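Quick start: what a row looks like.
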Amino acid sequence: MISRNIKAIVESPSNGVIRKMFEEGAVLKQKFGADKVFDFSIGNPDLDPPAKVVDAVKEVAADLTHLRHGYMPNAGYPETRAAMAEKTAKEQGVPVDGSCVVMEVGAGGALNVIFKTLLNPGDEVVIPCPFFAEYTHYVHNYGGEIVPVKTAEDFGLDVSAIKNALNEKTAAVLINSPNNPTGKIYSEQEIKDLAAVLKEFGEKTGRYPYLICDEPYRAITYDNKKVASAFDKYDYTVIATSFAKNLSLPGERVGYVCINPACPEKADFIAAAIFCTRVLGFVNSPAFFQKVIAKSWDAECDFSTYEKRAKEISEVMDYAGLKYVKPEGAFYLWVKVPDKFGDDDMAFVNHLKKYNILCAPGSGFAGKGWFRIAYCCAEATILNSKEAFKKAVEEA
């Protein structure tokens, strides 16, 4: 008999709703034709990987060195860890070396390793809403509990709400910037204020909550905005990230954990993360793409296509009369459900399906009353959805 808890989750209507929409989209495309289905369900980047990545793939594939596909240290190849440290140092503005890095199976694997490393049963992870749906499952995997906190009206951080949520059970605060699903980038001042609150709490209680920065969208920003550094503001900071979004490699499952070199628990944290990587069954991040990323992590990328699509999908929403949050990064549009539906986002996304429009309900992101559009899709899908959205709103 399978676990009662897992059975209940699997059978829940809200379980995996984004993936279900994605799969339903494939069926609708077969039935009506791909050009008549407007699938905005999943954040699957449709830009091709940069030429430097493709060249690195060819180079690594041509390598006939003995045992080239064998095991490596659980933390990853030393040269790959060093490359990721160089990348992180440039982003964070502080020196970082390879001893701070553990290679992981994507950002999802990285987060699971972090939570297994940090959480005791009953520990809490504070997360601003809305947030990526799988966070809840990741935390529950290790006996922890999610503590959702409200954000500001513009979906920026409400640091006072985070402060009020901290208690003796708080193991970590998790932020995602640019945010999935809102596209919000947390400002330099917001990160400074958050760091001050966490420091104050640690000094008062002796327990410093870790600040976990989930950053797979870090490079995808608009209007010359930049994601604020955190290593220079708070010692107990750890980054989880991958190359799924910026280099369009979601299926290759290569990412990493990087701990702040200033963290007093750095050595213990890294030792634990290496152990957790092994015992969770990952063993190590995929060998082939560790080698590829070591050669191509700094490939130049042009995200102007996403910025153009952000403008186009916003114009579609304006035409349909729907309110939304202007994205500052990533490739999602966070849209308010029409007033006549109240806060029933599931009812509205089901209504949209009648017009062959597939979107993700906000409830899956702890954002009831909203829905998410993933515009990392063909430009024609966006432009051709204009009348369908308009009609769906008018006939609601």
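That is the whole record. The CA atoms of residues 128 and 149 lie 5 Å apart. The mean pLDDT is 94.
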